[in-house]
Target: Peptidase C14 caspase catalytic subunit p20
Amino acid sequence: MNLTPFGWIRMLQAAFILGMLAVEPSFAAAISSVQLTVAASPEQPNYRWAGKAYDSEDCRQTIDFGRVIESEAPRAMSSLFGNVGVARTVADEEDALGSGLLLKIELKRFQPDNVSTWSMKFDSTIELTASIVSSDGAIWSKSLSDTRSLGFQTDMGCNAFRRSVETGASSHLKNMLDMVLGGLAADAGFRSAVTDIESKLATSTPDIFAGLQPMLATYRIAESEGVVRKKPTAKGGAVRKLGMGSIVQIIGKLPTGWLQVAKEGEAIGWIHEGSVQAMSVQSQPAVAVAAVPAKPGKPAPAPIAVAPAPTFAAAPAAEAFPTKPVAVSFPRGKANPDDIAVIIGNANYKATAKDIPDVVPAYADAEGMKRYAVQALGIKEENVIFIRDAKLIDLVSTFGTADDPKGKLFNWVKPQASNVFVFYSGHGAPSADGASSYLVPVDAQAALINLSGYNLKTLYANLGKLPAKSVTVVLEACFSGASQSGMLVKNASPIYQKAMTEVVPANLTVISAGSGNQIASWEQDKSHGLFTKHYLLGMAGAADKKPYGNGDGKVGTDELTAYLKGTMSYMAQRYYGREQTAQVATGAGR
Model:
């Protein structure tokens, strides 16, 4: 490579500036404590040059400048910044802004002159813009341009020519990146901004770790993806991403809900409790928190919760039947003063029914659906009919009978003004001959389900007679005669009975947890029904995101169905080796 006189002057200036920087240890310490992430845009067309013909031969060479920037910019910056990474996605850039600075390199122009054996040289001009931004905005920006000449032998073949051009052009860009470093060191505004950022980090770091309580637990990722972050904040920088069902070791918890993740006993980052589910928790929490000493020239790492020897016990339930809803909030829906909701959670069967097992997560499922009805659907709390452990008389008085559909719900509906939302979590069962399906009240007799159950056909028919604008029914129940907690009838055959598919009236939409011969599965800790949990997560927006949705801010039925198949159905298969597919019925039939 041959440098032009102008190029040599630039390089000498950069070297002089770096020499000045070496005698300012206070600034060097400040800048080394701030994380820098480099972002190029290799997908842009101007980051690739396809080359030109070499004499009469077609010796074109493609140069991927984006990859050069990704590999060389961290090297160029490492003498100033102690921690330099690379952002390859927009999410990576957002994470970087939450925990440090982002260096954006934009290649404006790469202009090669014609190549010929007559001149035996390859001239190229590079123009680029470098800017450094923080969460508060841009703090430094500079545009650079340089021209270099590459000499080569006149008898060079195509392969040697390609290698020479790639090496020369890449080296040219590397020199430009070194010049960016010189520009940084010389810019007084940048130096002042970095010092301010370092000061903010130093004063804010102790606060975010306040109240760290040691624990020893095993959690499982309960969302489609869990992100382990460098700091316990939503923009704390990503350490790694874990798929649904992945197991993580937890050694500490902050009051803000952030859990400290460890690998082989060493703390590696933080994950929020909203994206994980407890599998096992130590019965007696530890009390010690250890401060981690800082390395010379580096900021102090986060404190580490010191957990005692791993004596695991199953995570105890706060009560016999959990009531805590799924940890998710919903975009506030438009208030609809005339809309009505019926929310039923049948959990405690053993107290009144004979030989019918409990549905442990039914209360929590009902609480989650009530929150969804109020927040997302805009239904007033006074318009919610909320029933725990519904007996047959409760179902009859709410929905009516086969002869008289005018129960409490009918009387609450304002004609042609009310939308109705119905949720039921509890047992469902087929009749002995499989000809009918029933909701199972908590006082039912399993052997006489046709007399003590509430006929699903009656439910659909009476809902179809409501003078409502629309009716949506969500069923966290299966109608196979089997359940997560056992067969509904003691000593019954484990061969599932297939319930009859009931006809759905034209104004109804029914979404159920599974088909007639499937089991409605629960989370392994019995905290929620799998269907209810992922229904709520999906309706909170997860179903609108890729790969399930189109990102238009609304969750359609097709998006929800795809999301439930990718999450609920997958987890039922993973946990229990069983199939569970949500069913959707709209109008007169399926």
